[in-house]
């Protein structure tokens, strides 16, 4: 299977390694010769192109390229002063793609950076170049560069150069999948997931219509975020409640049990299932510890809030601690996480949670938000139906 996947690329040396000293088929040897020949031919063509692009004044122009028409200006400068041609731009793209397929992501990244600064956004390969540059940085694990490329790609998609609304929604869904590679490896990346997936309505719409499975990654980001959890949890639970009919997994079910059903026993069961899911999820395995700690805190906070008053003795039994240890643990918990309204009455040996009243204005705002969200989802579903009908005809 591994060899079968590699055979679709130009990583021929990796294919040969899979034979483990066994005779190499003639077809594989022939493919290697063909790849080397093609690489040398492309390199001979691209060397002169790169030599021009690495002239200090040209590099400076590219590094400082922030204007919308900056690419046109750079290309005009190269054409007038360095005998640069349009064919050279095409050669640069072909070489970038070829080196990417060979697994040389450093060279591919550099060449795609140059290419991106030379063509305008109407170029048919511009979007491919943006994705190729992002993929190269992800594979190199250069997360700062990958984040910059992700933001450039997002800006291009949000400018909506597409023919239909449905194509725009599809591109946003794809972008969020790519974002997982970056944001689950980037410092404060989970906060940026919340900002993009939950707080930006067009992206939330794309999740609801095309990719409800992304709710797992959004939910983990919200639960484990120390700075945005409190402000985002309520909105997340609303979305999960709306989407329960179309998607659920242990992570979303955990929040459903805790904030919709108020079933603490089932929430505890789901938390155990969450640990199994996260430990086997490529993106989430590294945040399992954070999730476990934050989820337990949510259970504790919600349990105390529902009951308003709970004895430290009972908590001590549940936590398998002495009453004195439990009291210290709760004090540290309230102090560290600033649990709103939580107080300890040491004389009575109780944890008391204050009740926060919700104003009529807040209730109206929340219901309006929910209706708006549902209306946008229906509109996108209708657009999807129209597109499917057009394709069928």
UniProtKB/TrEMBL annotation:
Keywords of this entry: Cytoplasm, Initiation factor, Protein biosynthesis
Main location per the UniProt record: cytoplasm
SUPFAM superfamilies: Winged helix' DNA-binding domain
Similarity remark: Belongs to the eIF-3 subunit E family.
Described purpose of this protein according to its UniProt entry: Component of the eukaryotic translation initiation factor 3 (eIF-3) complex, which is involved in protein synthesis of a specialized repertoire of mRNAs and, together with other initiation factors, stimulates binding of mRNA and methionyl-tRNAi to the 40S ribosome. The eIF-3 complex specifically targets and initiates translation of a subset of mRNAs involved in cell proliferation.
PANTHER family (alphabetical): EUKARYOTIC TRANSLATION INITIATION FACTOR 3 SUBUNIT E
Protein's name in the database: Eukaryotic translation initiation factor 3 subunit E
Organism: Caenorhabditis briggsae
């Amino acid at each position: 299977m591994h060899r079968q996947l590699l055979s679709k690329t130009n990583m021929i040396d990796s294919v040969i390694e899979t034979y483990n000293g066994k005779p190499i088929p003639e077809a594989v040897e022939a493919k290697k010769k063909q790849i080397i020949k093609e690489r040398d031919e492309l390199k001979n063509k691209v060397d002169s192109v790169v030599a021009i692009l690495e002239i200090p004044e040209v590099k400076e122009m590219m590094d400082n390229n922030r204007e919308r028409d900056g690419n046109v200006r750079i290309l005009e400068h190269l054409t007038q002063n360095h005998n640069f041609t349009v064919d050279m731009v095409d050669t640069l793209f072909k070489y970038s793609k070829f080196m990417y397929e060979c697994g040389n992501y450093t060279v591919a990244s550099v060449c795609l950076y140059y290419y991106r600064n030379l063509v305008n956004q109407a170029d048919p390969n511009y979007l491919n170049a943006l994705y190729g540059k992002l993929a190269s940085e992800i594979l190199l694990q250069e997360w700062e560069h990958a984040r910059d490329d992700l933001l450039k790609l997002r800006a291009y998609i949000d400018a909506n150069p597409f023919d239909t609304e449905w194509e725009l929604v599809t591109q946003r869904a794809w972008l969020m999948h790519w974002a997982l590679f970056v944001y689950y490896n980037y410092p404060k990346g989970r906060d940026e997931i919340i900002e993009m997936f939950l707080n930006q309505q067009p992206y939330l719409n794309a999740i609801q219509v095309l990719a409800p499975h992304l709710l797992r990654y959004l939910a983990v980001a919200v639960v484990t975020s120390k700075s945005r959890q409190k402000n985002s949890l309520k909105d997340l639970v609303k979305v999960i409640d709306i989407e329960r009919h179309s998607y659920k997994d242990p992570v979303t079910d955990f929040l459903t049990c805790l904030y919709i059903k108020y079933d603490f026993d089932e929430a505890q069961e789901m938390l155990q299932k969450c640990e199994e899911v996260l430990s086997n999820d490529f993106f989430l395995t590294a945040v399992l510890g954070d999730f476990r700690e934050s989820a337990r805190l949510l259970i504790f906070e919600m349990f105390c809030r529902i009951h308003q008053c709970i004895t430290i003795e009972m908590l001590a039994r549940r936590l398998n601690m002495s009453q004195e240890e439990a009291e210290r643990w709760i004090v540290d918990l309230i102090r560290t996480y600033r649990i709103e309204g939580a107080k300890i009455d040491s004389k009575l040996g109780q944890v008391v949670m204050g009740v926060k009243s919700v104003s009529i204005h807040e209730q109206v705002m929340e219901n309006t938000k929910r209706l708006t969200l549902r209306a946008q989802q229906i509109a996108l579903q209708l657009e999807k139906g129209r597109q499917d009908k057009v394709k069928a005809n």
